[in-house]
Amino acid sequence: MANSLPRPLAAVRNARLPDGRVVDLSFASGVVSAITAAGAADVLGPTLDLTGRLLLPAPAEPHAHLDKAGSFDAINPKLGDLGAAIDAWRGHATGMSVESIAERARAQALVMLAAGTTAIRSHVDVLGDGGAGIEDVTRGARALVQVRAELEGLVDIQLVALAGPHCPDHHLEAVLDAGVDLVGGAPHLAPDPPADLARLLAIAQRRGIGADLHADENLFGPVTLDAYARAVRDWPGDRPRTAGHCVRLGTLEAARRDAIIADVKAADVGIVTLPITNLYLQGWQHPVSTPRGLAPLRELLDAGVRLGAGADNVRDPFNPVGRGDALETASLLVTAGHLSPEEAYGLVSTGARSVMGLPAAGPSVGAQADFLAIGAVNLVDAIATAPADRVVIHRGRVVAVTETRRELPALPATAS
Fold first, then answer.
1. How far apart are CA 196 and CA 243, in angstroms?
2. Same-domain pairing of 153 and 48
3. pTM value surpassing 0.85
């Protein structure tokens, strides 16, 4: 049968919302134009009956590594060691082509789209050493720019240039010139963290673009988030400023933690927590009272900081597992982060979109018509069971459908 996707919709009918209401939603120009009681509206144009499905705002992924996804089996790295993972990836990356990177990135993006994710921000490595040529350095960037173009209209993709502490400035500039949107890096891993932070932000300033930095991805060691927040406090309000991981913030004593959170809030830095990879990588040296590798979620939420959550690495040297499903991230936020199911799903949807600078999406008039319709009775059921049956809507068009079939043995009849 011919593939009919993407399929434009004028409305969805009989959609059950998390608050229990059953409604019809009409769409116009990719946004929600009306919400009425089920069956109350007359709609001209194609509709979709969602009877039996829960309608949720579509998830967004604020921190992915599409260029690394799915490389674990080929690399077979040492487990649970951030430094070893970095070294293993660097060694493997020397043999990668633009085509091979694009193939894995495309496959991972489509898996995420099928799971409901309609927007992805992916970091992409500045490849090669200091002596590498520009064609070598930009392989990852060119691959992900290609995938972004291929998937335009299906999933929104933002790209961040991930520059290591030894990456020359002109290499970072070349990757940005290749079509990457934001400056990224990991200053806490540099021999001189403040100097690396300053150089990365200077490049962003010079080019008039935003930054999305890996910040303090360790339980002990340097803290850069406070200096980052203070450095970008006077940036224009529409220029992105994001910090991912922020694990160290969760290990600081309360007074210093709260002072840094105040700096983050004042600078409107968006924070991205990444439970699956941080829980995997952090704590291996602590066999007793093993700490959680998470940012302090409750304190950040209570302070009103813009907070999103993502999956980070998926089946690569930094994390051998992961499904690329935002409901997996939400489940971890409940079990390890002690958030409510509503808070957890908010971080992978509304919060993630806020951190990414995207317009609001979901069941509200004027919001972007990006939805996940899933075979669940309520939000807790969706997070707990992560049903595979899903319909994904992006800007008012069906862009992915997954249907499953289950067969179980018949049980003997019992006496009534």
1. 15
2. no
3. yes
In angstroms, the CA 143 to CA 146 distance is 5
CB 344, CB 331: distance < 8 Å: yes
What is the distance in angstroms between the CA of the first residue and the CA of the last residue of the chain? 46
Which residue range is the domain that position 34 belongs to? 7-58+363-402
Q: Is 136 found in the same domain as 279?
A: yes
Predicted confidence (pLDDT) per residue in 331-342, tens digit: 999 999 999 999
Q: Where are the alpha helices (H) located in 225-378, listed in sequence order?
A: 225-232, 254-267, 275-281, 297-302, 326-335, 341-348, 350-355
- Residue 120 burial class via C-beta count within 10 angstroms: exposed 0-12, middle 13-18, buried 19 and up: buried
Preceding omega of 6 cis (within 30 degrees of 0): yes
80 and 319 in contact (C-beta within 8 Å)?
no
Provide the domain count of the chain: 2
Long-range contacts of 398-402 (CB under 8 A, 24+ apart): 398/5, 398/6, 398/7, 398/9, 398/48, 399/5, 399/6, 399/113, 399/118, 399/154, 399/155, 400/5, 400/113, 400/114, 400/116, 401/5, 402/114
The verdict on 172 and 243 lying in the same domain is yes
Separation of alpha carbons 68 and 79, rounded Å: 16
Place of tokens 């066999």: 287
pLDDT in tens, 8-59: 999 999 999 999 999 999 999 999 999 999 988 788 899 999 999 999 999 9
Does any domain span residue 299?
yes
Q: Residue 26 sits in a domain of what CATH number?
A: 2.30.40.10
Residue-wise pLDDT tens digits, 289-312: 999 899 999 999 999 999 999 999
Look up residue 107 and give its two tokens. Answer: 């496959």
